[in-house]
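Marked as duplicate of an earlier ticket. Keeping the data here for the record.
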Amino acid sequence: MLEQTAIQAEQRVQSSPDSINTGVIHACQEGDREAFRLLFEAYKDRVFSIACYSLGDETAADDITQQIFVKLFTRIGQFRGDSEFTTWLYRLVINACLDERRRQRRLLPVAEFLPMSKAAYRKSPEPGYERREIAGSVREAIGGLNFAFESRA
């Protein structure tokens, strides 16, 4: 029975591009897992491409693609048919990408919020070493000078 349903669903998909929008979607809404597999196969690359383009990150796009099809599996019954199925699906993808970007902005690296250690506030010891070195050189140069004093009376 399941095999026959799968064959019928594949024939509906192959018969015309619009049949994805009618027969397969209706079967998905009735809980037909084979129809959902066909829907997944038909749209997985498009969903991934949109997510990848929107986010610029293939790993995040993979995650979004997975989330979309889980959401689609649980919410396909909410599709009313007021618009094209692809319009509804792509809007789900774009909304998920926007949510992901918002989430990424909220999760700034923790290091930016950690208080700096006391060592970070201290001045570098290098200027002190330089001053001591210069002072020693000046003392040495002054010590090597011969002063000729004349007394004026």
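See parent ticket for discussion. The radius of gyration is 36 Å.
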